Amino acid sequence: MPATKNLCAQIPTDLHQRVCEAREQSGLTTAQYITNLLIEYYEMKKNGGNQVMANNNSTRTMAFQIGEDLFQRIKAHLERETQRTGKKLTQREFVLGLIEEALAAAQQQSHREVGVGPCEAGSEDGSPQPQEEGDPAALSA
Length: 141
Hints:
single chain; mainly alpha; 6 helices; extended
């Protein structure tokens, strides 16, 4: 572990609040969060003001706005999960987990549908779809 030294500064109250909220959402300690901010700042400054992505641009940022009600529901869920598991669940971990689950489910669904043409697909209950005699698809089969 590299040697460390204390850094203390008086900052405006509103900035302090923003930093505390962002640090809390990240799930990092204050020391880790401030260290990451400073490293990111100096990397960006070294790069002419452009944000540097970790791991040779292998990460991307997704940002979106949500309603206050949904935000509060998510926040309450994160708090419940943190209490239930004893490990802090961050917004990032939560959203990434949901995205991974949705993509895995979509991929499984896609694999099930591969090779099944529209006339071969079953109905919603899984039974074969009936073909009418006048249906061109039924005649060509």
